Every structure is written in C-alpha cells, then in structure tokens.
C-alpha cells in the first residue's frame, strides 16, 4: 500500500494546505464513505453541505468551499484534476510483467533497453526495439521491426504487428491488436482480390488504448494517432485514419478508413464515423452519433433517435417512410399558395 503525507500531496496537486501536513494518506475515497487515512474531493458546489458530515482525513476543494470543511483540506484549482493526480501518486496497480519470464521467446536480433520486463509466453521477433522500462505482459506478440518507446506498458495478449511504432509512456490494455491489415480489396467480376496493406501504425507519446480495440495498419501511407490521445475499449479504427492531439474516443466507436479527426475532439460511445471525411478541431459528437459528412466547425453534434416504447417507435418509423411523399405534397401546396398570391 502506497502512503504519502498530506504535505506531499499538496506539492503534487499544487494545492494550498490547510491543516496538518503530516497526516498520512493511503487512498482516495468517495465523500460518503471516506474514513481515516483517506482523502476525498468535491466537484459540485451543491454538495458542499455534505463536507461537514465526511469522516475523511482530508478533502480537496475549491477556495469557495473551504469554509464548509471541518477537517484537513487542500485548496486546488480543479478538485477533479487534483483527484486524478493524487490517485496516480497512490496507485498500487502492479506492472504488466516483472523481469524476463523463462517462457518468453525473444529473438536474438531484438533490442531491449534497461529494465525491460517481459511476461510468460510473450513473443518478441527479430528487429523489434523496446526502449528502457518497457513492460510487456503475458502472451503478448511484438512483430518484426516494431518499436516501443520508454515506459510503455502492454497488458496481456496484446498483439503489435510488424513495423508498428508506439511512443513513450503509452498504455495498452489486454487483447488489443495494433497493425492488423486494413480492409482493402478490389473486386474482379465478383471475386475479391486482396490489396496488401503496406503502411503501418504510428502512435505518439502518452497514448492510452483500452481492451479489445483494433487499429488497422495503412494501405499505402500510415495510420497515425498523435500524442495525448485516449481510446476506450472495443473500438475499430480503420486503415489510414489520422487522430489529432488530445482527442478522446469512447467505447464501441467505429471509424472507417482515411478519416481525419482533429485535435481535442470528443467522440461519444457507440458512434459511427464514415470514411474519407474530415472532422475539425474541438468537435464533440455525443453518444451513438452517426457522422456521414465532414464537420468543418467546432461544436457539439448529435444524431440518432432516443429510446421510445416499441409502439411509439413503430409509428415514428412508419412516418419516416412517408417523408418523401409528404415533402412532395408540401411542395405542391406551397406552389399552389404562390400561384394564388400571383
């Protein structure tokens, strides 16, 4: 169990300490259940009245809520960000691997930096390069010529295909596949002719990728994911997609090939994004959004039909099928009105 003084946590969060800096903290906990040795946080001012009821050893709050605190406090600019930083500092999650497992299969032509860890039954092929402090979990596959930057960590059964590149401080959760073939075929009189996918995948620094996500390699050019991108579980990112700095993609999203997503975008879960389009910087697509055309302006975009009873949905669906006929009748009515006015 990791434990730190409140004074040390004040340094980590750039917070202003109110109370005993020698108080020992070992965990972050919700306000209603936090106890001795735990720190909590307040993100919504309407719950400030509950601060007096908390049994936490310390709380993280904005300056406006300090008067409600009856225990040690850290006054911070953003309690949620402070929570994230404290949780990181106290994190006791183990590494994906410790040392080099006896059953790991590592090519003599692979290059491993200092303090690299490789789990049981992992395979690292010729020409692969793992920088210092890389951790490769059990059952992982690292293909020929692949490169992993310093401090990058792969959890179990991750597959990194040939020539794929990951930057520094990346985290990839279990069973994700990076660098599989893009979906490229030509059709000759009903017969599918496979197009070899000769590009690769280039991933920047501080990128986190969830479990069971697939990122395809490029057909000719590369699939590119820039720094500071976060990708949730079970996404499909097709060949030649480009994702800009600081963008967040929630679970179940599907992105078709050759689409470019800008910087600082947020894509809600279950969204579907068409291929060969561009999405501007700062775009937010709410959950289950269907993006069929390029988005050129920053903003929030939504689509889809909210849940209805089956009876209501059947009526809605029936009306949708009559929209074209209704549009023709409306235009005819408009024309009659115009003719009468003339």
From TrEMBL:
Any single Pfam family the record assigns to this protein: Hexapep
SUPFAM superfamilies (alphabetical): Trimeric LpxA-like enzymes (SSF51161)
Classification via InterPro entries: Hexapep (IPR001451), LpxD (IPR007691), Trimer_LpxA-like_sf (IPR011004), UDP_GlcNAc_AcTrfase_non-rep (IPR020573)
Catalytic residues in the record: 239
Family designation: Belongs to the transferase hexapeptide repeat family. LpxD subfamily.
Assembly description: Homotrimer.
Name this protein carries in UniProt: UDP-3-O-acylglucosamine N-acyltransferase
Source organism: Vibrio qingdaonensis
């Amino acid at each position: 169990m990791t434990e730190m003084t409140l004074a040390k946590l004040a340094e980590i969060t750039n917070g202003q300490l109110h109370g005993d800096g020698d108080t020992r903290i070992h965990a972050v906990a919700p306000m209603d259940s936090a106890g001795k040795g735990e720190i909590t946080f307040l993100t919504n001012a309407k719950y400030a009245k509950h601060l007096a009821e908390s049994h936490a050893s310390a709380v993280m709050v904005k300056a406006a809520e300090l008067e409600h605190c009856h225990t040690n406090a850290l006054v911070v600019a953003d309690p949620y960000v402070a929570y994230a930083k404290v949780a990181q500092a106290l994190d006791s999650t183990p590494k994906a691997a410790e040392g080099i497992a006896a059953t790991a299969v590592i090519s003599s032509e692979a290059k491993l930096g200092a303090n690299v860890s490789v789990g049981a039954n992992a395979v690292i092929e010729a020409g692969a390069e793992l920088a210092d402090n890389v951790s490769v979990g059990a059952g992982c596959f690292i293909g020929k010529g692949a490169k992993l930057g310093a401090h990058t960590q792969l959890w179990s059964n991750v597959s990194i295909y040939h020539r794929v590149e990951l930057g520094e401080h990346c985290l990839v959760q279990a069973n994700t596949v990076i660098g599989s073939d893009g979906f490229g075929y030509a059709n000759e009189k009903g017969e599918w002719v496979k197009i070899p996918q000769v590009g690769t995948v280039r991933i920047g620094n501080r990128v986190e990728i969830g479990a069971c996500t697939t990122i395809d390699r490029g057909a000719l050019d590369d699939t590119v994911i820039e720094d500071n991108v976060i990708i949730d579980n079970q996404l499909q990112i097709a060949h030649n997609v480009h994702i800009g700095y600081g963008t967040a993609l929630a679970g179940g999203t599907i992105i078709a090939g050759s689409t470019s997503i800008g910087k600082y975008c947020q894509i809600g879960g279950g969204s579907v994004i068409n291929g060969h389009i561009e999405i501007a910087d700062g775009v937010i697509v709410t959950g289950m959004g269907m993006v069929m055309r390029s988005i050129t302006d920053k903003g929030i975009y939504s689509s889809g039909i909210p849940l209805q009873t089956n009876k209501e949905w059947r009526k809605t669906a029936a009306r949708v099928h009559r929209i074209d006929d209704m549009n023709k009748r409306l235009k005819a009515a408009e024309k009659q009105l115009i003719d009468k006015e003339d």
